[in-house]
Fold this sequence. Notes:
Layout: H1 3-11, E1 25-27, H2 29-35, E2 41-46, H3 58-65, E3 76-82, H4 86-98, E4 101-107, H5 116-123, E5 127-131, H6 137-150, E6 155-157, H7 169-181, E7 190-196, H8 200-211, E8 217-223, H9 228-245, H10 254-258, E9 260-263, H11 276-289, H12 298-310, E10 319-324
Parallel strand pairs: 2-10, 3-4, 3-6, 4-5, 7-8, 7-10, 8-9
Antiparallel strand pairs: 1-2
Amino acid sequence: MNAEALRAALDQHPRTHLVAGVTPLVTAPRLRGTLGPETPELWIKLDEETGFGLGGNKVRKLEHELAPTRLDGVTHLITTGGAQSNHARVTAAAAARLGLGCLLVLNGTEPAHPTGNALLHRLLGAKFRWVGSRAEREPAMQEEAARIAEAGGRALIIPLGASTTLGALGYVRAALELHEQIDETRDRDVHIVLASSSGGTLAGLIAGFALVERPDIHLYAISSDTPRDELLRTAADLAGGAVERLGADPKVIADQLARTDASDAQVGDGYGIPTPASREATELFARSEGLLVDPTYTSKAAAGLVAAIRSGRFLAGDRIVFLHTGGHPALFANG
């Protein structure tokens, strides 16, 4: 499938336009220099600049999850995440834009003095239900949807991270952007390094690059919490479903899956808990390129990038693209 055919297939799926436009792909010469003379050519795809609700990767996925055809009769949006969820922030912003109520089912303890995303959730008008564990989130969302229905409303439940076959179409579109921003060469590989947790962003990239047939593209996902093998399985399943939505055979993703890897080596003590490596990466990105990475996702992906470069994972002639998926409000969270 060429780029025009893929764009036409994507355009068959309605979406609510939230992304400001094509996000920039910029070089990172000072970061490259800081990491040493053997560092390959280094670029950064600034998906922190998707724009809406302070940006980030969730905006792309919500465009499809919140397609006008899915909102007929809907009065509320319900979604889930942690106390500092970026996805919850963008969902709350979208609800405000669309004139809908927003209910967030969050696991953890309600903060007495909200900061970071937790403050933004409230500023955007979301209501909350707090649960004690991740396992309680899905049942709680269903209960809240039933409560809203009993009161005469209708809730649309958006799964964690909008990581669905529909939401993944947002990152098929991002893969198409990158395909057009990065020239293909036969003798140079492109390694795209990204944060991943619920798998939707990775899945969309797998599907997109498979469909435009880019044998030079390699994907390397750095997990913030999910075990490596589970992350790859989830992404593969979602990618196959996204390809089916676009009218193609799911088998087309096989070659791209063979060029896709993941690591859970940066998780450290757990989700949202900084590590020495992630703190170092946060400072490297800020002081060399003026880029802010959040402590939960992008800092750990940045640490994975730094570790991979230092270990010699990439060849000197390769090109590396770090996908900056946003999340910087969490930098202003306490605890």
